[in-house]
Amino acid sequence: MEPYHNLLKLALRSLLAAAVRLRDTTFKFFTAVADTLFSLYFASCSMLPCTVDLDADSSSAATTVHFWIPGHRKSTRPALVLIHGFGANSRWQFYYQVRHLSKHFNLYVPDLLFFGRSYSENPDRSIEFQAGCVAAGLRKLGLERYSVVGLSYGGYVAYRMAEVDVAAVEKVVIISSGIHYTEEQKEEQMRRIGGEGIRDLLLPKKPGDVRKMIKLALYKSRRYNLAPDFVLQGFIKETLLLWGEKDNVFPLHFAYQLQSYLGATARVEVLKDTGHGANIDSPDEVNRLITWFVSSAKS
């Protein structure tokens, strides 16, 4: 299995490096091949695809959440949920994490609604709806307690999950997510990183958009209404904030601003020479810190 796994990893890295050079005519072919390789890679890490129908027995709008779940759940391991950000589905964003973390946790990796294979006929696009659907899917999968990691936009969803499923969420890890920044700060950041084109940047549809997203999000690896109003402190007992020193989307001062808001239970870890895409820029350090924090005894 190890040679097979390494071959897949090499193929994925080569494809990602080639992404920024593709023309529009080959972009769809590239994404189809990459999706297949990512699925094979997750399977090589003993992960299985699974879809959960949330409204199968009701007359409400149909909602289906797609997960990657552990092939062999072990009772001695804690459960960990990875919530991806904008830009692509969960496989594209967490392929640097899945192998390491699946060795230490019962790992659950959902596609947020309207990404990957998760969808809903409900017109609701709110963070609350995303969080509620992921939490409901996890309950249907039999999870009673778990920790959650949220990347960028996924950080908003992770914190809302701690509100809607407070009895289930044990610890939260936030990676590069501008939670609790002001409207003025949000407007300034939007002007600085993309202005009116921010939708195209976060949801790339062609190679030029991919190039822009990679340039903005990553520091080392360049070759390849979001502000919530809810009160967080009462829901989270322990929080780890992972932040890239060179984050161009949510600069480092947002980490300390959020830490000050959350209080003494929040800890900031700064990743040197790392951009917004910390999971790709510094995967080994991200994996080490997640494993240490989630596995450590509760304070």
From TrEMBL:
Protein name: AB hydrolase-1 domain-containing protein
Record-linked PANTHER family: ALPHA_BETA-HYDROLASES SUPERFAMILY PROTEIN (PTHR43139:SF37), SI:DKEY-122A22.2 (PTHR43139)
Matching Pfam families: Abhydrolase_6
Annotated ranges, domain AB hydrolase-1: 80-288
Gene3D superfamilies noted in UniProt: alpha/beta hydrolase
SUPFAM superfamilies named in the record: alpha/beta-Hydrolases
Family annotation (InterPro entries): AB_hydrolase_1, AB_hydrolase_fold, Meta-cleavage_hydrolase
